[in-house]
Amino acid sequence: MALGFDVSPSGARIAVVSYSTTARTSFDFNSQQNVSNIMSLIDRIRHQRGFTFIDRGLSEADKNVFDVGKGMRPDNLNIPRASKILNFGYLYST
Questions:
Q1: What's phi and psi for 23, nearest 5 deg?
Q2: Which of 92, 71, 80, 76 is nearest to 9 (CA)?
Q3: Is pLDDT of 92 > 70?
Q4: Percent of the residues in the chain that have a pLDDT greater than 70, as a whole number
C-alpha cells in the first residue's frame, strides 16, 4: 500500500499502530519518511497474537500518533488527512 503514495517529508506521511489484545505504535510520522524506509519498517512489524481489540488500536493512535509532536502536520497547513484501518479477524472491544 505504501508504494501507492508519494512518501516524503513534503508528501504523504505514514505511521502504523499494531493492535491485538494490546496496542503499540510501530512507528510514527517522525520516522524517516521515504518509501524504502517505510517498507523496511513495515517488514519488521511482528504479528501479535491475541484478540482484535480495535478500540485499543484507535486509542493508541489518538494518544501516540495523531499529535504534532509525533510528526503530524499542524491544522493550519490545510493539508488533507486520512486514516486507513486494516483488520484481520473478529473485532472485540473492551
A1: -130, 150
A2: 71
A3: yes
A4: 98
**End-to-end Cα separation, the chain, in angstroms:** 29
Give residue 1's pLDDT: 67
Second CATH level (architecture) for the domain 2-92? 3-Layer(aba) Sandwich (3.40)
27 has which bridge partners?
A: 16
Cell of 41: 519498517
Looking at the predicted structure, is the pLDDT value of residue 8 above 90?
Answer: no
Q: What is the pLDDT of residue 75?
A: 85
Give the whole-angstrom CA distance, residue 52 versus residue 69: 28
28 burial type by CB count under 10 A (0-12 exposed, 13-18 middle, 19+ buried) = buried
Residues in the chain: 94
